[in-house]
Specification:
Layout lengths: L1 E5 L4 H12 L4 E5 H4 L3 H11 L1 H4 L5 H5 L2 H4 L4 H10 L8 E3 L4 E3 L3 H8 L6
Parallel strand pairs: 1-2
Antiparallel strand pairs: 1-3, 3-4
Helix pairs in contact: 3-7
């Protein structure tokens, strides 16, 4: 089963959800804000895509953080920051048995899903 992580009012998350539904793929939607996050989830994602790819430095949440919170982040510091501010995670994040992918582009989703079991 695929899980799509994000926030419900994000336009890119909506596009990803529409794409998954149009391709009749079963998935569960997990809203960062409403459903929360765990250290284990964030660990899987930092292992799967890396810290730099996971962290959204373009958003207002990142820009509003004090410089001392942003500078010199190691993996543990990043995980704590993402638990505290889930909107710092790039969206959407698609996760499955063999998938951990950040962002949405139709061509990338097609390549990811090709050959993956959806049961």
């Amino acid at each position: 089963m695929l899980t799509l992580y994000g926030i419900s009012n994000c336009d890119t998350v909506r596009k990803a959800r529409k794409w998954l539904e149009a391709h009749q793929l079963d998935y569960h939607f997990h809203d960062f804000r409403k459903d929360g996050l765990t250290t284990e989830q964030i660990s899987r994602w930092t292992d799967g895509v890396g810290m730099e790819k996971l962290l959204n430095k373009r958003g207002t949440t990142w820009r509003s953080l004090p410089e001392e919170r942003r500078d010199g982040l190691d993996t543990q510091g990043l995980q704590s920051l993402l638990l505290e501010y889930p909107t710092l995670i790039k969206r959407p994040l698609l996760e499955g048995d063999t998938i951990c992918h950040v962002g949405f582009k139709e061509t990338e989703y097609s390549a990811l899903i090709n050959g993956v079991s959806h049961e």
